[in-house]
Amino acid sequence: EVGIPEPVRYPEEPPYTAVIPMSAKTENQMNAKLEILNDIIEKLNNQGTNIHLIDYNEFAKLFNLKALNIFNLPSQILSLHEYSGLTWFGAYAPSHKFEELIEKTDELYRKHGVPPFNYLKIMKGGHYGIFRPIFRFKKFKDQEKIVKLLEEIADVCIDLGCIPYKTPSWITAKLREKINPGWIALFEKVKHCMDPNNIFNPGRWNT
Question: Where in this chain does the record put each FAD-binding oxidoreductase/transferase type 4 C-terminal domain (predicted)?
Answer without folding.
Answer: 10-161, 173-203
